[in-house]
Design brief:
GO terms for molecular function: electron transfer activity; iron ion binding; iron-sulfur cluster binding. With 113 residues, this protein is α+β, with helices and mostly antiparallel strands. It is built from three helices and four strands.
């Protein structure tokens, strides 16, 4: 099978999609990290879930973790969009868990020049 060059190295597995957590929406319930513990971890600064390894668990187990999310913040995305989403996440100001989210108040951090 030919590779397109867009797929990351996944332990020899080639998938057309990756998993991404919208950390602004995440409430830090930890369900996904308990179900697919090789894929998700709880980011210590904000208490939100984050993907640590795309090839950590089987697609079925990752899908089970997605299905257990009470706020639907975990998504399958095309690999071509994954790097962009991860780069955008670094500029977001993420509210602490337990506080209401005002989408209008969420702004982007300024990147250093």
């Amino acid at each position: 099978m030919e590779r397109s060059g867009l797929e990351p190295e996944l332990g020899g597995l080639v998938r057309q999609k990756g998993v991404y957590v919208d950390e602004v929406t995440c409430i830090g319930c930890k369900h996904c990290a308990h179900v697919a513990r090789n894929t998700f971890f709880i980011e210590p600064n904000y208490g939100r879930s984050r993907v640590v390894r795309q090839d950590g668990d089987s697609e079925d187990l990752i899908q089970e973790a997605i299905d257990t999310c009470p706020v639907d913040c975990i998504h399958w995305v095309d690999y071509t969009k994954l790097k962009t989403l991860e780069a955008e996440r670094e500029t977001l100001i993420i509210p602490l868990p337990g506080f209401p989210i005002d989408r209008a108040a969420i702004r982007r951090k300024k990147r250093p020049a």
